[in-house]
């Protein structure tokens, strides 16, 4: 195979082209090196396994400050309920997370837990929310590159105290005349205010009528007013008070008597029958019955007739 020999001029041209190519490669390499370079404030050189440090064996490690990707919103929770605050944070290395309530560190205990899921979701859990849990919560995430914070407010709605109904005083049994008005009164204490049910002989009493009305005030006083009482209103009345905490009942008696008329009927005349007594019959025949039953008097009469007298010597 024939080879072409280069003269002095051709050889110079070839070397010049190679120099231009080397210059372009060098510029491109420097440009890529400058683009991949990381600021020294966030780069650490790690020694090789051989214990020597040089430019070729140095391993560059990057740091990223924490950044919250997801944060919870302000919350209002009823006392005694379950509550959970979820958030996500990024950073390299993985940041350490801590919580503060009104400036004081929040510690994990039986009612407060801090967990992290496999997907990197952080959670602050309240098993049972208490009134003391209310306030401003500050979450702080730190690593070698920096820190980040966010604040969330938790409002705790106080649990309403409940108390079962109880009678302060109970309705008293009453006796009235037909046509009169009567009040059956009692006072009940309960939180929240109870619902009231009245029964007469186990049948519900119909309120808001022309004759029967029910009144109740803020102090718990209850009045059942019955106007123009009649015989049908008589019987056993039961009042029941019911709320979410319990129930209580009480019974009372209402007696209705007829109103007396203005004119009283004339009393019946009694017939007196004559008495047929044996003693009266004997007396009618001239015998002294009393004297017959008095032996001492009869002895004195017989002694006087016979002239006998009592001797003092005997």
- Overall pLDDT level: 78
The assigned CATH architecture of the domain at 163-257 is Sandwich
CATH C-level class of the domain at 163-257: Mainly Beta
Q: Report how far apart the termini are.
A: 212 Å
Query: What kind of assembly state do the chains in view correspond to?
Result: single chain
Q: Using the CA coordinates, give the radius of gyration.
A: 59 Å
Spatial strand arrangement across the major sheet? 4-11-10-6-7
Briefly, what is this?
The chain is an alpha+beta fold.
What does this structure look like?
- The protein is α+β, with helices and mostly antiparallel strands and 314 residues long.
- Among the domains are: 94 residues, Immunoglobulin-like (Sandwich); 95 residues, Immunoglobulins (Immunoglobulin-like), CATH 2.60.40; 29 residues, no CATH class.
- 17% of the residues lie in helices and 41% in strands.
- It contains four helices and 20 strands.
- Strand 15 and strand 16 form a beta hairpin.
- The longest helix has 29 residues.
- The relative contact order is 0.09.
- The N terminus is likely disordered.
- InterPro entries: Ig-like_dom, Ig-like_dom_sf, Ig-like_fold, Ig_I-set, Ig_sub, Ig_sub2.
- Keywords: Actin-binding, Cell membrane, Cytoplasm, Cytoskeleton, Immunoglobulin domain, Membrane, Methylation, Muscle protein, Repeat.
- One of its GO terms (cellular component) is cytoskeleton.
- GO terms for molecular function: actin binding; cell-cell adhesion mediator activity.
């Amino acid at each position: 195979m024939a080879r072409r020999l280069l003269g002095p001029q051709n050889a110079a041209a070839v070397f010049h082209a190679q120099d231009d190519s080397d210059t372009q490669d060098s510029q491109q390499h420097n440009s890529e090196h400058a683009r991949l370079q990381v600021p020294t404030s966030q780069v650490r050189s790690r020694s090789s396994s051989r214990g020597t440090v040089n430019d070729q064996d140095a391993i560059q490690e990057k740091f990223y400050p924490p950044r919250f990707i997801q944060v919870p919103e302000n919350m209002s929770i009823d006392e005694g309920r379950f509550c959970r605050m979820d958030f996500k944070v990024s950073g390299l290395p993985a940041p350490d997370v801590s919580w503060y309530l009104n400036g004081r560190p929040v510690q994990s205990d039986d009612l407060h837990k801090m967990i992290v899921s496999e997907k990197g979701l952080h959670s602050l859990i309240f098993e049972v929310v208490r009134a003391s849990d209310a306030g401003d919560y500050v979450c702080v995430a730190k690593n070698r590159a920096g820190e980040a914070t966010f604040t969330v407010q938790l409002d705790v709605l106080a649990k309403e105290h409940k108390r079962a109904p109880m009678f302060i005083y109970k309705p008293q049994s009453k006796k009235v005349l037909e046509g009169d008005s009567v009040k059956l009164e009692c006072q009940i204490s309960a939180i929240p205010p109870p619902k009231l049910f009245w029964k007469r002989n186990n049948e519900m009493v119909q309120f808001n009528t022309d004759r029967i009305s029910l009144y109740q005030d803020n102090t718990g006083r209850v009045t059942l007013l019955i106007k123009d009482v009649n015989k049908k209103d008589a019987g056993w009345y039961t009042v029941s008070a019911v709320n979410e905490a319990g129930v209580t009942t009480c019974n009372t008696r209402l007696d209705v008597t007829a109103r007396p008329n203005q004119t009283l009927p004339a009393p019946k005349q009694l017939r007196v029958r004559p008495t047929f007594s044996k003693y009266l019959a004997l007396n009618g025949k001239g015998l002294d019955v009393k004297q017959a039953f008095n032996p001492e008097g009869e002895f004195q009469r017989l002694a006087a007739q016979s002239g006998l007298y009592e001797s003092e010597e005997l």
